[in-house]
Amino acid sequence: MCKAHVARTQDRMSTEQKLARYAVPGSRLRGVAPPAAWVVLLAAIPFLAGFYLLLPPTGLSRTIAYPAFGIIGMLAILLGVHMRRPARSGSWRLIAVALALLAFGDIVYSFLSGDGQEVAYPSPADIAYLGGYVVLIAGIASLIRGRVAGGDRTALIDAAILAAGAGSIVWFAVIQPGLAGTVEPMVGVVSMAYPVMDLILLGLGLRVLLTAARPRYLQFLLAGVAIYFFADLVYALLLLNQAYGDANPVDAGWIVGILLIGVAALHPSVADPVTTVESSDARLSGSRLATLAAAALIAPTILVIHEIQAGDDLVVGLVLEWTLLFGLVLVRLGITVRELGATLQQRRHLQVDLAHQAHHDPLTQLANRSLFEVRLAQAMATAPETTALIFLDLDDFKTINDTLGHATGDELLRVLAGRVQRGLRATDLAARLGGDEFAILVEACQGPSMALAVAERALAVLRAPLSLVDRQLEVHASAGVAMGHARSTPTDLMRDADVAMYQAKAHGKNRVEAYVAAMHGEVIRSYELGTELAHAIETGAFVLHFQPAVNLTSGAIVGAEALVRWNHPQRGLLGPHEFIPQAESSGLIHSLGRWILREACFAAVGWPTRLDGQRPAVSVNLAASQLLQPGIVEEVAEILAETGLPPRKLILEVTESALVDLDVARAALLRLRGLGVLLALDDFGTGYSALSYLARLPFDIVKIDQSFVAAIGQGRRVDALLAGILGLCDALELVTVAEGIEEGPQLDRLVALGCRIGQGYLFARPVPAAEFTALLTTSRETQRQSPGVGAFTALVARPVVAAAV
Ligand code: C2E
Ligand code: MG
Ligand code: MG
Questions:
Q1: Measuring CA to CA, which residue among 514, 504, 503, 499 is closest to residue 388?
Q2: Could you count the other beta carbons within 10 Å of the beta carbon of residue 488?
Q3: Is the CB of 742 under 6 A from ligand 1?
């Protein structure tokens, strides 16, 4: 996936971008040099060659023009070395010297033949030519050396076989006839030297051709050398047949060959580091074998033709038989090669699979952490300022996993990962970093708003309801976004996105936060709070306060809600909002919740009974994850048994946030109810407030959120809403408790609307356990002395309550 992705990205790169990759840092020519000198020279080659051929066949212009092309080739190489600074610049300089020597040979030849004189053969010009060849061979050999791991001996041998095959033709067609009748040994040696060197050049060219990786510059070089070789060959044949004269088109072959070598040196790819390639499996292919066989059969074929002409049947027969045997052996070899090829193919597939596994998460098939980190490092190294990182963490996934089981949890992760992936651009990379943590790398990001938009989109696709194992689920996630800047490292970016994600969780989950520097301190404080909290649970630094719940008509205290406080050594008494979210996200809520439940039940069994002989009930808040934890029912039963509190005297309060998965919540609530405890839906009206909850879930009590009470008297609509809720609860036989009653008129209105029970500062603030017990005793006393008086009015006036405020 990743390779294809990289390929796609590269496809989209403009030529300019591709060229920019080759620009040499700090080069003076970087901004000044023509963008592609090699293109200019390549395009000019046909014109230059054509121009040469159009010059008058004899005369000064040709004499000057011909060596000029050698000089152009040489200059192109020197310019290429200067501009591109190739790794093997020494080799290129040797090739430049070779072209210079060849051009020098031309000049010497022109000089010698200046007055139309016959030039002796060999002449001093041949010294320059042959020197040029030797240096050219040395230059090319040193340029292509060491490019294949382990020396690539097979490619070398293959190249030698092909060159030797070509050598047979050259020998029979050129060298042997040329030598026939030559008496002067010097002439013979020089005449042989040219084709031999040509063959060595051809061998080098074939060596490049047979090697797996051929960068563009080597392809140009190869083309140049091949054309040069064929020009030499044609020239030799023409010479042999006395058909070569002035202005022969073959001259253009040399010109094109030399100029292509210049193009090779100018090509941007010469700047690439010399990469060593693994020897290629391609060399085992059947076509390669057939080519080699064809090369090996050239000499016997010539022999057969020769012997047929000579009429020697025996030799012809032997050679043909030998050819047949050779062919059979080759077929046998071919079969082995094919089998080997299949095994290799399998191995390659296996390697690809292993590489995929090493870089991808097996569950979701998204990139894994290691691949993600590599891609992030690459992005940050090339364009840190346009790199954005999004960290994404599912909200309450642990609860889902614990309640629905790990198999469903895994399935959920798979579905959600697919959604995230589909919502991204092809250039973005999504990864699963572990558990329910995902990350998105946004490259070429135009700014924080774009990164935020990507994150918002990801959260939106996650939020869409999904059905899994016959359940309707709605999963939320929190995301943190961080933008790179010039000096930030990948680690910085990961940390920043993590901090922002953490903040999104702390600020209520199901949201995106972009990183700002100030977040850092906040996160550190929150981290410290987490450690302190764990310590506080161990040392029992928590206390319970109790807030009375009052019968709004009689004033009798019917119960109390247990509200936890943290007795912090430095910061004093902390309210639940300051530590409950942290306790929930860290999982500490379970041990804290257990303590609260036990403490509240113990307190309630010690409370005096009311005049009617009834004991006030105690309400305990359950956090969402507490309700959904598998052992909660057993835990409550155990505590009831231990403390001896009658189940009817325990009210468990849950908020709507605990009802994400209705089926699971319903099952837990039903089992709790089976114990005989009462269930209250807390803060009704603040969350989704689906009225259907009231009918579908086994609640006994609905606690109307204080925001409704606070809004009493602020308009007919609020009143109507409150009346509606109370009427509905009444119809469903649910007891309503109004929260946050602070003023007399609120109380009057609630009583008028039929609300029976309430809590609020008007009656009492939450007070420590001992004070609440005292309050109960006083309330009982007041009621006994003046049963006719609205008891809560007397209650409010009690100094003990005022002192507790
Ligand atoms: P809650 O369950 O709705 O508790 C009522 C909150 O309203 C309490 O705040 C109480 O002090 C406050 N309150 C009562 N009367 C009035 C009033 O007249 N005016 C105003 N403005 N506020 C009033 P507290 O103690 O800060 O608790 C806040 C929330 O923290 C609770 O809301 C509950 O959701 C959570 N909480 C408290 N104790 C526990 C606990 O033991 N376990 C868990 N899981 N959550 C708890
Ligand atoms: Mg409550
Ligand atoms: Mg409440």
A1: 514
A2: 17
A3: yes
